[in-house]
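Hey team,

Filing this mostly as a record. A colleague (T.K.) asked me to run one chain through the structure pipeline before their review meeting, and I want the input and output archived in the tracker in case anyone asks later how it was produced. No errors, nothing strange. Just documentation.

Input sequence:
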Amino acid sequence: MELEIKFKSIAERWFINVLLIVVCIITIAAVLLSAFLSSVYMERVKTLGNDYSYEFSSLKYTDSENFQDVAISLSDEFAYKDKIEVQVVDKTDKVVVSTSGFLSQEKAKMPDYFEAKSSKKGVGIFKGKNESGERVYALSTAVYDINGKYLGAYRWITSLKGVYRQITITIMFIVAFSILALSVCIVSGRFFIKSIVKPIRDVSNIARKIAMGDFKNRIEPNRNDEIGELCDTINYMATELSQAETMKNDFISSVSHELRTPLTAIKGWGETAKMSLDTDPELVSRGLDVVLSEAERLSNLVEELLDFSRMQSGRLTVNARNMNVSQYLAEAADMYTELARKQGVEVSFQAPPKDSFVFGDPDRLKQVFINIIDNAVKYTEKGGLVLVTQNEEEGCVKIVVKDTGVGIPAQDIDRVKEKFFKSNKTVRGSGIGLAVADEIIKQHNGLLFLESSEGVGTTVTVVLPIIELPEETSQETEEVILKTEDKIDSVLDMEAEETVLDEIIISEDEDNG
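Output structure:
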């Protein structure tokens, strides 16, 4: 089977989702910062120009007759001639004074002057190239006398060459810093992505091999982070899958053996009985007994497998009612007394001083008792003892099955209730009986736990909550159980058995009501 792998590279996703966003953010930040700094530089030029030319604001205290004389006097005394040039324009739009000492005979282009002359604020600004192509900053301020009569204007002009050089240097620094930041982001991002992608690819390759059934591969966990934890988890999963695969194979082998043995006996004794029909009736009878016995064994095994299937799918249910658990425990022990004696093992059941009643499914609980006692007999050698006891403690009935068998190794004691697990593979059994028994006890709100010492024996304890019934009710319940069992014995179909049982219980409840 080919495993088709489709994935989108993490590096590609990082480039699209992260790097492009970072590039956009840095670019926008660089542009906004450059614009902000350019605005700051221009505002600084305007502030300095106004400060340097402030003394020319005194022209507003003159009149049209001495306007030019005062302008010439201020120009001669101007101390910042190396910083800016200040020009004075009269009301005829002619430059009459310049701190540079140069007056053109032609009218200069003064857009800032005409803006100030026509503006209500009396201020005009020009940023651009002058007649010689040099970038300048010019600001004109209109001058009015105390009566509001227009006298002219003064304007200052400064070159922006140094300012633009400084702005260019600043922008270049911002661009260089942005490129450096992007480079660091790209390099560190690639290194980080590489440190993630490579281990993930290794994990993916190993996981793919594990998915195809190769459980021997392991990942070297050389990181102490989430990826290292993932590697440990993958390794743990591979170990568990390997063990599950081994147990599954052992289970198939064990079940195959469990099925083959009775089938062989049935086939052999069937053929023997067929050949002896008219010659040896006793042999035929013996053969039929073996066939029936092995058929019962097969039926029990199949039922156990069906119960396991129901447990795995969550369909293992119990039909609970008030029942005498002591009675069913005694029946289970009696079933094995003679069988165990033939194997040289003694099964001893110590009857309790009084019966205990629980709310449960009689068939399911008897199935549990049979499974536990059967295991105890199977794992107890000749001359051993299986002791079954029952007593009540703190509102619960405690059922203990203790044997003097081979015991369970300490490393296996926590796993004996797992599906397919068998501590001793030399003894018959499917390895699922105890798992099913544990699930049944859980559905009865009870506990099943084991204590064992290798070479000494095993103790299995079942604890179930008891119900207190009045003496009259207890007697009625026993009568209901006996009637139910009589009805069940007369019905062969399992669904008919459940229907009759429900009808009898309902009728008895109505009588009690």
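Quick notes for T.K.: Confidence is low (pLDDT under 50) at residues 1-7, 487-513. The CA atoms of residues 332 and 369 lie 6 Å apart.
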